[in-house]
Amino acid sequence: MIRRILLAFSISGLLIFVFWIVVVFLPVMFVEMKYQYQQGLASLGVSQLRQLFIPDFVGMTIVGNVSKNKEYGIIIPKLGIDEPVVFNVDPNDKQQYRAALKQGIAHASGTAYPGNNGVAYYFAHSSTPDLKLQYNAIFYLLNRLEAKDEIYIWHEAERFKYEVVEKKIVAPEDLSFLNEANVGEERLVLQTCWPPGTNKQRLLVFASRVWR
User: Of 153, 76, 77, nearest to 112 (Cα)?
Assistant: First the structure.
């Protein structure tokens, strides 16, 4: 009897471990490998493997100008992020924001839109138990961003450029950054859970609008 109980616990533990590997580790590993691949290409002076063999005569490597999501999207060149954005998502409505995060990155309702002064708040997963693997680790690499790194937001087919100014880790209940919603300039806040696969803290990246 004891052996059966121990065996059952062992099998349960193994299944939990396998589940964690599938929904947390694999998405993170995929994003990390993609990032390292892109960094390797960048060290060779190209952004796509084909450019090693075919010269780029049409400007396809202009940062931020080329996107799969020119209507509503976000580009972070350093991290290889080019993903859709779902605007006007209520961060307090669990069903609504979960649906948005299955599509890409969520823009919080009540915060500024691109082109308007105030704080614009965007959030996405770093890794979470969600079988939509292609999206549950979008923001895993946010911690790699440094001052002056570029971020582009596409809204209604118009492109807006920002540069990172700082990043920090805060408690989940710390929403003090939203109190600056009436600032006289345009600011961007990207948020994800930290460390990946947990809800322990929040990683915030702050960026300011640039006009060049």
Answer: 153
Look at strands 150-155 and 201-209 and give their pairing. Answer: unpaired
196: left (phi over 0), alpha (psi -120 to 50) or beta: beta
For the record, the structure tokens of 197 come out as 């696969």
**Residue written as tokens 């803290």?**
201
Q: What are phi and psi of 109, to 5 degrees?
A: -60, 150
CB count, 10 Å around CB of 78?
18
Tell me the C-alpha distance between 206 and 21, whole Å.
31
C-beta pairs of 99-107 under 8 Å, 24+ apart in sequence:
101/125, 101/130, 101/135, 101/136, 102/130, 102/132, 102/135, 103/135, 104/69, 104/73, 104/135, 104/138, 105/74, 105/138, 105/139
Banded model confidence at residue 103, pLDDT cuts 50, 70, 90: confident
What domains are there in the chain, each with its CATH number? 3-209 (2.40.260.10)
pLDDT tens-digit map of 15-68 = 665 655 555 666 666 666 776 676 676 666 656 666 556 655 444 444 566 788
* Residue 4: its H or E element: helix 2-20
CA proximity to 130, closest of 109, 107, 100, 108: 100
> What is the CB neighbour count within 10 angstroms for residue 93?
12
Q: How many CB atoms lie within 10 A of CB 158?
A: 11
d(CA 46, CA 195): 31
